[in-house]
Design a protein that fits this description.
Blueprint (H helix, E strand, L loop, with lengths): L4 E7 L3 H7 L6 H13 L3 E8 L6 H13 L4 E6 L7 H8 L24 H16 L4 H7 L5 H19 L4 H22 L3
Parallel strand pairs: 1-2, 2-3
Helix pairs in contact: 3-5, 5-7
Length: 199
């Protein structure tokens, strides 16, 4: 059967954040060359990204979206940075005043930006429009305007519509397989949260 899917950790489209904060010494050029090679061999590419990182603003967040679009990522999975206890990036956030309170107060993973950064609300809206921008790059100028407008119910609808479209018609995963993949992971994440925050 061979390989069908490759998973690529892009994390951030801003090289300074990727190099200095995430300690991933991988250039944009290397990511683009790698994904080009994967496409050449007809592999579907799952991209892993983070938004809401320390030092990030809306322009840097859009760099992440644009890099995913340039790489033609099949499934651009995006997560908000969550300041788990005792990790370096959380300690950095506290030291540089991006995070004011103890991370013990965070009880679960969230789609909200958990730290104090510039353009926080715009980045939260971009999270819901990320799939749209990657799969239809011509919408990026429109998305730059939309993130300034608080119509979150529309963005929520766009997010779930685009994700369903990608899973069912691009990845072509049968609905039952999608459910079987989703719920065990959801249960795992719930268990992980309880483990981390049990004290």
């Amino acid at each position: 059967m061979g390989f069908k899917v490759a998973r690529v950790g892009i994390e951030s489209g801003n090289e300074k954040i990727r190099f200095d904060l995430l300690r991933r010494k991988i250039t944009d050029k290397q990511i683009i060359e790698t994904t080009t090679l994967l496409h050449k061999h007809k592999l579907k590419i799952f991209g892993y990204n983070m938004l809401g990182l320390p030092e990030e603003d809306i322009n840097k967040a859009f760099e992440t979206l644009k890099l995913n679009a340039k790489c033609k990522i099949t499934y651009p999975m995006t997560f908000m940075f969550h300041p788990f206890p005792n990790i370096d990036l959380t300690q950095y956030s506290i030291k540089e005043s991006f995070l004011e309170t103890s991370t013990d107060n965070f009880s679960k993973l969230s789609n909200k930006c958990e730290i104090n950064i510039k353009d926080k609300k715009q980045i939260e809206r971009l999270y819901y429009l990320f799939y749209l921008g990657v799969k239809l790059p011509f919408t990026i100028p429109l998305i730059k305007r939309l993130v300034k407008i608080p119509i979150n119910s529309l963005y929520f609808l766009i997010f779930h519509t685009m994700r369903a479209f990608i899973v069912l018609f691009i990845i072509k995963s049968p609905p039952i397989i999608t459910l079987l993949n989703y719920y065990p992971r959801k249960l795992y994440s719930v268990g992980l949260n309880k483990t981390i925050y049990k004290n």
